[in-house]
Amino acid sequence: MPSIRGGTSVYILTAIICEILLGFASLGYANVIVNDDVWYGNGRSLLQANNGGNSSSMVLAEQRTRRQHYTGGWNISNPQYITSVFFTGAPLILVGLIWFVAFGIFLLLACMWICCCSRRKYGYSRLAYALSLILLILFTIAAVVGSIVLYVGQGRFHDSTSNTFHYVVGEAESTAEKLENVSSFLTAAKNVDVAQILLTQDLRNSIDSVNNLISSSAETLNSTTLNNKDRIFRIVDLAGTTLIIIAAVLLGLVLLGFVFSILGLQVLVYILVVIGWILIALTFIIGGIFVVLHNMVGDTCVAMDEWVNNPTAHTALDDIIPCIDPTAAQEALSKSREVTFRVVDLVNQIVVNVSNANFPPGVGAPPLNYNQSGPLVPLLCNPYSSNLSNRTCRAGEVDASNATQVWLRYECQVSSSNLCTTEGRLTPVMYTQMIGAVNVSYGLYNHGAFLVNLADCTFLRDVFTNIYQDHCPYLNRYTKWVYIGLAMASIAVALSLIFWVVYARERRHRKYTKLVDSRTAQD
Fold first, then answer.
1. What separation in angstroms does the CA of 224 have from each of 8, 285, 357?
2. Over the stretch 63-92, which tens digit does the pLDDT of each residue have?
3. Peptide bond before 79: cis, by omega within 30 degrees of 0?
4. Is residue 432 classed as helix, strand or coil in its secondary structure?
5. pTM (2 decimals)?
6. Whole-angstrom Cα distance, residue 501 to residue 266?
7. What pairs with residue 88 in β-bridges?
8. CB-based contact 156:481 (threshold 8 Å)
9. What is the DSSP string of 7-32?
């Protein structure tokens, strides 16, 4: 059914946003950055003939996804595409691993040298001392700036990601609410009773069939939205908290290292060097993960935009989101139109054959003459013809949107025996029943377009358009800020760490040289 298709589409949209943007962020490989992305190889035509030219297929985000000899476009069901995106984070991850191994070997050799080799006398160079101090200050400042960029970037990234998911969740909840409204209108249509006349049993049975599917879809959408919403926001909050901790630790580490180095606290400096050695490697790796995330966000945003702008082409998204199901769409729309037509027709039969008729007293059971009099009640405009095609209202017909006010003028006051005692052709009971039937038909008529939009993916295309225009620019910008901040802070802290040792060494040499000079002068 269309409602099921539409509900599934919204669920899959939520899954795409959370799983692609957050779940796939792991190690990868990158080479040359072009337009904020990494790409390789030769591309192919955006639109390609499929099955001898009978239909066209489209490669989504074809330009952005040309990486490592991969030219298949955006396609999360293709392991080669996933691998190609993972590879975009390899440079930073590789740097982190090289740093961890190389600096670890350096620390090991340094420890062996200190422990095993005899110490030699050393001299003092004012130039080396001043230069190491200047570079230490510069790299400390750079590390502080990188930590600030990282902190600000993670805040903006957290806000933009939260806003995107709030929008998606809001659209899912809105869709579920509309599905529940359709279900409620169909249930009410089954119970329409105007002057003890009901819809046919066959139609009521078919309403049950359609209503069960719509209700099931609404319940499924509600439950999946509720379950995924908490998980998604936990992931977003965890990512933000992790980045805040990293920024704070990096900032604290570089400031403490600077202070301890200036004060000549060598033991504490060496402890911080070991801590920084491990932390910098982890920071480079996390930076690589955010490169992957940045490219995945960019790919997905471009793919959504191209999918929206090429509704007739077959794409990888069509395999994930099977939107177009003409048979199911027509079935739901036809049933909605049929119920609307029958309800309006039932009301008009009562108006023509009872309210506007002038029967002699005693005719019918219950009596069809209840002292009705005065101007004739206008018929309710039926929006559909008998073949369920759209119909234009005729002159004199009342529209469902204002039938309540118009028919109120034809209501009469009644006696205890339910006979009109004033001029009018509708008893209060009849008026209430007719207005109830009008509300049902009007509600179904207004939701008909909604069902069609779910079935042909117009709804989802609108959601994707809003995400691309209102959310993607910020997601792309702030994921870039995060990995730039991580890389900048990592490099600056790594260099600061080296110059902690260099400056501490030069400071020790300077102190020793002054001590030797003072003793020589005394002698």
1. 10, 33, 54
2. 888 887 788 888 888 888 888 888 888 888
3. no
4. helix
5. 0.70
6. 8
7. none
8. yes
9. HHHHHHHHHIIIIIIIIS--------
